[in-house]
Every structure is written in structure tokens, then in C-alpha cells.
Design brief:
Radius of gyration: 21 Å
Number of strands: 15
CATH superfamily of the largest domain: RNA-binding S4 domain
Mean pLDDT: 92
Largest sheet: 6 strands, antiparallel
Shape: globular
Helix content: 25-40%
Number of domains: 3
Order of helices and strands: HHEHEEEHEEHEEEEHHEEEEE
CATH class of the largest domain: Alpha Beta
């Protein structure tokens, strides 16, 4: 048995973590690869950190394509071979004519959930404008959605399974920059990285729109470090790279912004 209480200390997503521990114990007992449902980025980061302390089991994540935000975990005993092909995911095309009725990610997700499936069974949704969308789901939901997902808002749609290789992924644009700051405060680094005023950044942080390593941070004075990932809703992500201290005891920080 895994040290459940020790693993759960300080965990925010406790229900999810408990479920993953149950599945890990099943994987240990049966010598089989067990897959969890889709996890959000904060849940995934917390679970991976929690299990990094263990030697009995191993995890591998996959969401259908490299940049996927929502991912599943395949869980197995450490003695077994494990690779990304063992993370079961499937792709759907949701095709319709949305030229005169533009739709959003929320519309497609709402239509899928309206068919009676739960959020945990769906991964990322890639909106393709007037052509419709592509969605990642657990394989066992494919036939059900092919039959039941026939409309998104007022537009009739045809839902069919496609290969993962058919996903129309837009590679994120990257911008490399360097900034010199008096401190490693979140508001200072993020305002430089996202190219906005510090006062505006403080509004985003205080308003609950900023995450560091997928955890909500509402303190502008929060100290960031090399390797941290800063995300702002609707604005993209910022990775903190190498940090050096100048002769004037300021911080020269390499940043990569993903848009």
C-alpha cells in the first residue's frame, strides 16, 4: 500500500489525488497499466509532484499532441515498460458550417457535456473557426459522441473519429527576451515578460487571473525563480529562464513568452 496520508499532505486537489492513488495501488496489485481520466494543468502538475517521491510506480502523461493542456496519466509499476503510446486518447472531428454563427471553445464543450458525458472524459478542444472543431476524448466515448453530438448551438454537425495525426495544431509562437529587474517579484517579472505596465499586472494578479506553475497566485510580491511557468488567462504563458545577478545587484532574467 502507498503512504496515502503522507502523499496527500498539503495537496489542493485532494479528491483527484485520492482517486489517482487508488488507481496507482490497482496498477501495483494487478501488474497492469491503468489510465486516469483527463486532468487539468494544475491537477496534473500536483499529481506529478506528489508521485515523484515514489519508487514503486511510474507515470507518463499524454493528451493527444505535445502542447495539450488537459492530459491523462498512464500508471504502472516501475518494473514495467511504459511509454506515451500507452496513454489511451482518441480524436474527433466536429464539422459544420459556422460561417454565419461563430462559435467558441465553450460552445463546443457545452454541446459535448450536453450529450451527457462528464468533463473528465474530454481533453483539449481545437476550434477551427467556421469549419468546426477537433476534440480529444477518452476512446470509449467516441461511438457515443458520433451518434449523439449532432448540433452545436443552432448548427447541425457531423461528428466522426479521426487519427491523431490529423489534428490541426497551431504551433505556439515564441518570443525570447531579457529583462533586468531590482527583484524577482512576480509583478516585476511578469509585467516585463508580457509587455504591460506593472500596475496593470498587479490588477491581473490581484484579480486571480495569474498562475505560477499552475497554482493561483494573488500576491504581487510572490517571488519567482528559474524554471517557473507564469500563465495569465487569455494572455499566454511565460517561462522564466536563466537568472544572473549583475554587479549592481540587480537580476538579469532570460524569459520566453509563448503566445
Amino acid at each position: 500500500m502507498l503512504p496515502r496520508e503522507d502523499l496527500l499532505k498539503g495537496v489542493e486537489n485532494r479528491d483527484t489525488a485520492t482517486r489517482i492513488i487508488d488507481q496507482a495501488e490497482q496498477a501495483i496489485k494487478t501488474w497492469e497499466v491503468v489510465a486516469c481520466d483527463f486532468l487539468s494543468p494544475p491537477e496534473l502538475a500536483e499529481i506529478q509532484q506528489m508521485f515523484a517521491r515514489l519508487t514503486e510506480v511510474q507515470l507518463i502523461a499524454g493528451g493527444g499532441y505535445p502542447q495539450a493542456e488537459r492530459q491523462r496519466l498512464a500508471i504502472a509499476r516501475s518494473e514495467l515498460p511504459l511509454d506515451s503510446s500507452q496513454v489511451p486518447v482518441a480524436a474527433l472531428e466536429i464539422a459544420g458550417n459556422f460561417l454565419f454563427d461563430p462559435v467558441t471553445h465553450r460552445d463546443f464543450l457545452g454541446a459535448m457535456l450536453g450529450c451527457g458525458i462528464v468533463r473528465d472524459k474530454t481533453g483539449d478542444i481545437i476550434v477551427l473557426g467556421e469549419q468546426g472543431a477537433q476534440a480529444i476524448v477518452v476512446p470509449e466515448m467516441v461511438e457515443y459522441l458520433e451518434t449523439h453530438l449532432t448540433q452545436v448551438r443552432s448548427v447541425p454537425v457531423k461528428t466522426r473519429r479521426i487519427e491523431l495525426s490529423e489534428l490541426k495544431i497551431r504551433e505556439p509562437k515564441k518570443k525570447e527576451l531579457t529583462t533586468v529587474e531590482a527583484s524577482m517579484r512576480l509583478d516585476a517579472i511578469a509585467s516585463a515578460g508580457f509587455g504591460m505596465s506593472r500596475s496593470k499586472m498587479v490588477e491581473f494578479i490581484s484579480g486571480g487571473d495569474v498562475r505560477v506553475n499552475w497554482k493561483d497566485i494573488n500576491q504581487p510580491s510572490h517571488i519567482v525563480k528559474s524554471g517557473d511557468l507564469i500563465a495569465i488567462r487569455g494572455k499566454g504563458r511565460l517561462e522564466v529562464g536563466e537568472v544572473a545577478v549583475t554587479k549592481k545587484e540587480r537580476y538579469r532574467v532570460q524569459l520566453t513568452r509563448f503566445m
